Amino acid sequence: MTSTAARLTQAEREIFARIDAILNTCVQCGLCLPGCPTYRETYREQSSPRGRLHLMRAVAEGRLDVLDPVFTDQMAECLGCRACEPACPSGVAYGAALETARTAVEQARAARGRRSWRERILRRLVFDWLLRDLARVRALGTVAWLAQRGGLQALARRGGLVRALRLERLEAQLPPLSRPFFAPRGQVYPARGERRGRAGLLAGCVMHTAFAPVMRATVRVLTRNGWEVVVPAGQGCCGALHLHAGEPGGARALARRLIAAFDAAGTDVVVTNSAGCGAAMKEYGHLLCDDPAWADRAAAFSARVRDVTELLAQEPLRGHLAPLHRTVVYQDPCHLLHAQRIAAAPRALLRAVPGLRLVGADEAGLCCGSAGSYSLLRPEMSERLLRRKLDHLLATGAEEIATANPGCTLQLQSGLRRRGLRVPVRHVVELLDEAYR
Ligand code: SF4
Ligand code: SF4
After folding, report:
1. How far is the C-alpha of 179 from the C-alpha of 208, rounded, in Å?
2. Around 63, how many Cα atoms within 13 Å sit in the side-chain half-sphere?
3. Ligand nearest to the CA of 48
4. Helical segments of 266-378, H only
5. CA 130 → CA 81, 185, 241, 346, distances in Å?
C-alpha cells in the first residue's frame, strides 16, 4: 500500500458502513483464489478476492485513502465476474462489496476533481443520456448500421479516425448490424399450443439493437413452448452498466422504470436472454431495499425474473426438433454461472437437440474478459483472458460456440475474427430456433 492517509469523508464512511458486515464475513481462507481470473493471470495476492477485500477493509477503517492508486487500480482490475462467490464457504457477498467500493471511488473522484474532461463528458453522455432512453440507443445503432453499409466504418478505420478517437476496441467488437431493430412497443406474440403463461421479454440496450435476430429467435422458441410473449413498451436499460461503473443512483432510476413497465404489462415471468441483465434484475430487491415505496415491488419483480434458458429447461421442450449434426462447446457467461448459479439449464437444452454433440472446455468457469465495459477499459487483462478462453474452446474441436450473453458473444467473435477463424458464436436459443425450423 502506498498511502496510509485516512481521508474518508462522512459520505464515504456511510457508504463503507453498508458493507461492514460483508467484509467481516471473510475469514481469509483463500479458497476463492484458484477460481479468480485476475489472480490466475498474475498470482498476486492483491489481485485476488481476498486481497481486494483486505484493501476494502483498510479503506473502511481509514488506514488507506479511497483514491490510493493501489485501491483504485484493484477495484478497476476486478472483472466483477463473481467467480469468488460460489467458491466461498463463508458466503461473502463479494459482488455487493465491489459495487459499493466502486461507488465510493467514483464519488471521491468526482468530489475531488480527479476526472479528466473527456471522462466527465463520456460518463454523462453514456450514463445520463444514452442509456436513459432506448430510442437513443437505436438512433446510435442506426448511425453505426449506415456507416457499415456505406463502408464508412472501414474508411474510418483505415484513415486513422478510429485510432484518433481511441475507439479501436469498441470498433473491433462491433458486430455486423442488421435492421430492423427489435424495439419494445408493447407487441404481443400469442402462445402456440397449450398456454403456460405470459412472459414479459426484456429488450435490453445491446440485445435489441446488435442482436435483433436473437430477440426474434427467442420469441419464436418461447411461443413454440407455450409462452405468450409481451415486449412491454416504456422499458429501458436494466441499469447493470451503471451499477458496475459506480453509479447506483442511475441504476435505481432505471430499475424503477423497468419494474413499472413490466408491472403495467401484467406478466407472470420476466424473461431475458442476456445473463448480465438477468443478474442485475434478480437483485432489484436488494438495490431498492431502502426505498419504502419500491422495496416490496422490486422484491416481487426480482422473484419473477428468469433467464430464457432457465425458463425453457423447466419442462421438456415441446414439438419436433430437427437434427443439427455438429459439435458445439458451451461458454458459461459469468453472470449466468456465478451470479445466477445456472449451469445445467443451457446444457440440457443443447443436449435435447438431436445430432448435436455437446463438448466441454477446460477452465469453463473462467471469465472470457468481456465483463461489460471491462474489455474497453482494461484491454490488456481482457485480452489475456480472451486468449486463454479461446485456446480452451478451440482445443475442443467444436464447430460452433454457444453462449447466453451479448458481452461474451462480442468478445469471442472479435477474438476469433482477429485469429482469422470463422467459428460461429451463437446464443443457445438460436440453435433451438434452427432446430425448430
Ligand atoms: S473464500 Fe471467502 S472467506 Fe475465504 S478468503 Fe475468499 S472471500 Fe474470504
Ligand atoms: S469478481 Fe472475479 S475478478 Fe473479481 S475478485 Fe472475484 S473472482 Fe476475482
Report:
1. 10
2. 7
3. 2
4. 275-281, 284-287, 295-304, 308-312, 334-337, 344-351, 374-377
5. 25, 19, 12, 32
Would the CB of 29 count as within 6 Å of ligand 1? yes
Which H helix or E strand runs over 59? helix 49-60
Which CATH entry fits the domain spanning 188-312: 3.40.50, 1.10.10, 3.40.30, 2.30.30?
A: 3.40.50
- Cα dihedral sign for 213, 162, 245, 143? negative
Nine-digit cell string for 263: 408491472
> Topology of 326-436 in CATH?
Rossmann fold (3.40.50)
Q: Which residues pair with 270 in a beta bridge?
A: 200, 305
Alpha carbon nearest to ligand 1 atom 6, residue: 32
Residue 121 to residue 267: CA distance in whole angstroms: 38
Alpha carbon nearest to ligand 2 atom 5, residue:
49
ipTM score here? 0.99
Q: Are strands 227-230 and 188-189 parallel, antiparallel or unpaired?
A: antiparallel
> Which strands, in side-by-side order, build the sheet including 269-272?
188-189, 227-230, 197-201, 269-272, 305-307
Decide whether any atom of ligand 1 lies within 6 Å of the 32 Cβ: yes
Q: Where in the chain is the domain with CATH 3.40.50?
A: 188-312, 326-436
Contacts of 167 (CB under 8 A, 6+ apart): none
Grid cell at residue 369: 474478459
The ligand 2 site (C-beta within 6 Å) comprises 36-38, 49, 52, 78-84, 94
Q: What is the rounded distance in angstroms from the CA atom of residue 251 to the CA atom of residue 241?
A: 8
Q: Which atom of ligand 1 is nearest to the CA of 50?
A: 5
> 10-111 sits in which CATH class?
mainly alpha
CA distance 259 to 254: 9
pLDDT, one tens digit for every residue, the chain (437 residues)? 444 445 678 888 888 888 899 999 999 999 999 999 999 999 999 999 999 999 999 999 999 999 999 999 999 999 999 999 999 999 999 999 999 999 999 999 999 998 888 889 999 999 999 999 999 999 999 999 998 888 777 777 777 776 666 677 777 788 889 999 999 999 999 999 999 999 999 999 999 999 999 999 999 999 999 999 999 999 999 999 999 999 999 999 999 999 999 999 999 999 999 999 999 999 999 999 999 999 999 999 999 999 999 999 999 999 999 999 999 999 999 999 999 999 999 999 999 999 999 999 999 999 999 998 899 899 999 999 999 999 999 999 999 999 999 999 999 999 999 999 999 999 999 999 999 99
